[in-house]
Design brief:
Number of domains: 2
Number of strands: 14
Shape: globular
Order of helices and strands: HHEHEHEHEHEEEEEHHHHEEEHEHEH
Distance between the termini: 29 Å
Strand content: 5-15%
CATH class of the largest domain: Alpha Beta
Length: 407
């Protein structure tokens, strides 16, 4: 009998009971706005900021409305403005170039490797033309951060890390978000902690944090934040930093705090599921796994594999066959964007010369979420289905077709 997977790729775990109780307490108080506090009250948002700063090892943390807002705020706080060139990954999601373009700045894309990380040789070649790199750890794939930082430091390029997919990940023991000057995170539903929407910005730099606090809409209520730069820093920057309101509220913070405490255990669960799928796919003809480097600690909340040099109709057939058996794969190689799978040539507000080497990789990427609502048995079944359908399409290639073009 042909197996069909019956689970949902978008169903997340419920919010912990502790978070639900804390959220109900906020609702009963009526004080949802982050600055609406009773006398002597810290508030959920400030408490969350302190806990997130401590968890990452950063001096400062700011809770905001989304990961994309955190990215744009980080760039503004660093002085990025209209016409400035900002380096970023060719393989990323639309909010990353969107954050750059929202400031009137110009995204300059850096290539992608078969390991799905930023191409460091291409970065070295382009680094002299910009002063900021908005680095996307896309789908949790960490580059060699020591080499990356050496390239950027030598060229005078400031690094902002997009850690939307790497909350809990690290390179050589250093958490993602702690290599660059600023780290930005998302708490959107499909990320590693879930408040529907939300995000964080972390930094050790007092002036960057002061500007970010004002940008987020502090109305000079600095002392109500969880981590607060010295007053004299605010005095230096408050008159030339605009309010671009993007505050997190107490309700979302209340939901997030218990999830943050449980995150290490959750990361272990994701990685267990990832390894089951990875092993189930290993050795599939025509399919290339993305090997994880030993120096990196990753969080396997999604998995990617490559069908390198396969013709588009063959990849479409794999997608269709897997979907018919309940397995939802996303493809970054389609001519038109579908859902979140846009790429640098889709973002016509930020045109860029063609990147043939990266295009070859992007055309090959298949992507799949691994929610914690899947059991290990579910993951094994999913891997069997993908393996079978990729194999079937591979074997059905016409006898006259040169299979070396689809390996």
């Amino acid at each position: 009998m042909t197996e069909v997977f019956k689970g949902s790729f978008t169903q997340q775990e419920p919010i912990p009971e502790e978070g639900i109780a804390a959220a109900v307490a906020v609702l009963r108080s009526g004080r949802l706005h982050r600055y609406n506090l009773a006398d002597g009250e810290t508030g959920e948002v400030a408490a969350l900021e302190r806990e997130f700063a401590a968890w990452t090892g950063a001096r400062h943390a700011l809770a905001v409305t989304s990961g994309g807002y955190a990215l744009a705020t980080a760039l503004r706080a660093l002085g990025v403005g209209p016409g400035d060139r900002v380096l970023t990954n060719a393989f990323t999601l639309a909010p990353v170039p969107g954050a750059i373009a929202s400031l009137g700045a110009v995204p300059v894309y850096v290539g992608v490797t078969e390991g799905l990380t930023i191409d460091l040789d291409d970065l070295a070649a382009r680094a002299g033309g910009a002063r900021v790199l908005l680095l996307s750890h896309m789908r949790g794939h960490l580059a060699d951060m020591e080499r990356l930082m050496a390239i950027c430091d030598a060229a005078g390029v400031t690094v902002v890390e997009d850690c939307a997919h790497t909350m809990g990940a690290a390179w050589r023991g250093v958490p993602s978000g702690r290599w660059g000057k600023v780290g930005c995170y998302s708490t959107q539903t499909y990320k590693h902690v879930n408040s529907g929407e939300g995000g964080f910005l972390i930094t050790d730099d007092d002036e960057v944090m002061a500007r970010a606090v004002i940008l987020s809409g502090s109305y000079m209520l600095y002392e109500r934040h969880g981590t607060v730069p010295p007053e004299e820093v605010f005095e230096r920057v408050k008159y030339d930093t605009p309010n671009v309101s993007g505050r997190m509220d107490h309700l979302r913070a209340a939901i997030l705090r218990p999830q943050l405490r449980a995150l290490e255990a959750q990361c272990g669960k994701w990685n267990a599921r990832y390894r089951v799928v990875e092993e189930g796919l290993r050795g599939t003809p025509g399919l290339t796994l993305v090997e994880r480097p030993e120096a990196g600690r990753f969080v396997g909340s999604s998995i990617q594999f490559l069908l390198l040099d396969w013709p588009a109709p063959r990849i479409e057939e794999v997608l269709t066959r897997c979907a018919a058996r309940g397995v939802e794969l996303k493809w970054f190689g389609a001519a038109e964007p579908r859902g979140f799978t846009s790429r640098y040539d889709s973002w016509r507000y930020a045109p860029h010369p063609a990147m043939p080497a990266s295009d070859r990789i992007l055309r090959a990427i298949l992507d799949m979420r691994l929610p914690l609502t899947f059991s290990l048995a579910d993951c094994a079944q999913i891997a069997r289905i993908i393996r079978a359908e990729v194999g079937a399409v591979w074997q059905a290639a016409a006898p006259h077709e040169d299979r070396t073009t689809i390996t």
